[in-house]
Give the backbone structure.
Amino acid sequence: MFRSRLIWQVYPLFLAVTLVAVGAVAAYCSHAFRVFYRSEARDELKALATVAAPQVARMLDADPAGIDPLCKRFGRTTEDRLRFTVVTSAGRVLGDSHEDPALMGDHSDRSEIVAALRGGFGESIRFSPTLGREMLYVAVPVGGASPGQAVLRLAISANAMDSVISNMRSHVVWAGLVIVVCVAALSLLISRSISQPIVSMRRVAQSFAMGQFNVRAPAAAATELDDLAKALNEMAAQLSDRIVTITRQRNELDTVLSSMIEGVFAVDADARIVSVNRAAAQLLSIDQAKAQGRAVEEVVRNLGLQQFVRQTLASDKPTEDDVSFSGAGERFFHVQGARLVDPRGERAGAVIVLSDMTRIHRLEDLRRDFVANVSHELKTPVTSIQGFTEALQEGGLADPEQTKRYVSIIGKHAQRLNAIIDDLLSLSRLEDGSERRAISFEYHPLKAVLKAAIELAAVKAEHKQIAVSLDCPEDVQAKVNAPLLEQAIVNLIDNAVKYSEPGSAVEVRVEPREEQIAIRVKDTGCGIPADHLSRIFERFYVVDKSRSRKLGGTGLGLAIVKHITQVHGGQVTVESTPGKGSVFTIYLPGK
Ligand code: ADP
């Protein structure tokens, strides 16, 4: 379909209509003028003939030979514009203003003459064989003495009339052309005035399409166009409102989704990712921007989750499952899915929510391990106590020496049970939120706290002839809970003593800094192999089980130290070289 601007469709139509109208008017005018002019000429000839007829009649009666000169005189008075001819009823030409009558043939057959001889008025337009051109003839009967004996005929050249008509026609054509030019210019203005509001409305509509809703269609003079402009403006206002609402809702949704801890992603009906929130991108280790529009199989490298997405897309009900991700560290997710439907109620995709259960899984594992460890640690002394008690009951009491040994073993195991239970209670107090909040902290001179700890550990140290030295500036104060810090330091000194050779030395040194205070407990004992260092602060973790148990260890000492430093807002670290010794450092926040 040929397309062009509205103005170039309307304007040619206007021009065509104008040309046809002007052409038709011009044609009609020239035709009407021709008819009018000929009828005028005929009437003029008729009037002249009527006036001249009596003269011809008189001459006919008086001197028929004078007819021809009379005709010629008549002709001259009209400057030979009109031709005068007198013809007898027999058709003989008596006189002619332009020709010699003797040379003219019988005229009785001329239609105008035939009509005049019948006593009426004859006229015709036809070719004159005498003059060789088209003529308008008018004939009247000439009375005289014997009425009806002759006919006076007047003729005028049709060419003379036509030149007047063509002159007139050229005037009409020129006037028509002037009218056409004027109308063409006027039509251009009218076409523009019609197309201009539509062009400006098109521009406004294009602005709307580009999202610029602040522009408005101007009012138009034509009511239809003005209504259209109003409708456009109303549409823009409504669109703008809706877009603002949609944008606000989307922003709210984005904010909610991005602040969610749960990972959320949506897929379309072909399982292509439509959106991913920040948490999901982190949990699945994917690039939020790159994932968009890609198939879930490409983005999520986990068969379980891929199958879950497919299953959710196919299901009419909400789905849920647990999936695990293996990799650097195993991760566990609880996944929930729901189908998305479009406004027509057809499947549009699905939304999947991922809850990271890794921590809960780990805590669950820890709890299981802890229960197993506690049971195991308690079972050993209980079994021993039970065994030695049975041995005593079964006659062991008979031998006083053996009884003494058995009772001492039972006592040792009971002591161990007690130590484990004490440590467990300390740990649980440190882990309990309300107990933790109840712990009070005050500024204490560190030297006094450390001295008290060294004194508590002194018995065991002296037993192994290990000297425990203290290097602490007098004025160092720290905001601590003195009994807890004392317990932590005792645990560290106890360990240092336990895992050192008799006669060696243990140093306790305080290094105060602006931001934190370091309390170091250094020994020259057996040290800890590097691969155990990261785990020795875990509950019940021991490097060498039999050695630790022989030395009366519970595997809870360092866990208690870690918790005590944590409640003080500090941390504990260890540096150790197997065979050379270890340094445990408690960092406490400074002033
Ligand atoms: P235990 O009661 O067995 O000493 P801890 O929690 O106090 O338990 O210590 C955990 C483990 O760390 C010990 O079994 C031991 O192997 C190691 N350890 C702790 N302190 C030292 C140290 N000063 N020198 C060498 N090994 C140590």
